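Morning F.,

Quick status update on the modeling queue. The single chain you submitted on Monday has been processed. Sequence for confirmation:
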Amino acid sequence: MGGIGSGKGFRFDRKRTKDFVESYKCLDARSFPYRVMTTLPAAGVRFSPHDVELHIFKDKIEVLYQVGGERRIYKIPLSVSPGNYGNSRYWLICPIKSCSKRVRKLYLTRDPDDMPLYLCRHCLKLVYRSQNRTELNRIIDRKWALVHQLGSNSDLISDREKPKWMHWKIFNRIREEIEYLNDEAERGICLMFGYASMSEAFKKVLKS
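C-alpha cells below.
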C-alpha cells in the first residue's frame, strides 16, 4: 500500500492526512524481555503505563478499563519468536481481529467513551515523521548531514576543513556529494517557485 511520500517529484505545502506515530504513547514489546516474562507468576503482574491499568501474563496482556461504572477487559495476545544465541523475543498482536498483525509497538488511543485502545499503526493509519518529508526536504537534510560530518557549518567546503583523521579520497567524495546535493536543492527550489534558475530567482527578488 502506497503511503504518504510515495511517488517521485518535488511537492510543496502538501497536506498531511495521517497522524505521526511520534505523537502517540505506545506499548513496546521490548518492555517485556523474554527471560523476565518466563518467570512471571501464573496470576500475572499489574502494570500501569500511561495511566492505563494492565495485567501482564506470560502469553497475553489484559487491558482493564471502566465503562459507566462497569469494569471491562480486553486482551492483547503475545507471540514469541526465536532470537539470536538461543534467546527469544516477544511480539505484540494487534487486538483487532481483522488485523491481528504481529508488531513491536501498539499505540494508545481512546474511543468516545474514553476506553483505552492499544492498536497497531496500520489500524490507526499512522505514519513516521520521516515519511511525510518531501524529496527536497531529504536532499537538504542529506546535504547538511554531510556538511556537519566534516565539522563545518557552511556548504562551501575548502581543503582546510578536511578532518585530520579523514583520507583525502573520502573527503573529496563527500565534498563532491555536497556540491551535487546543493545543485539538486537549488533545482528543486526553482521548480517549486517556477524559476528557471537561482539567478533568475535572485533577479526577480531584486526587482521587487
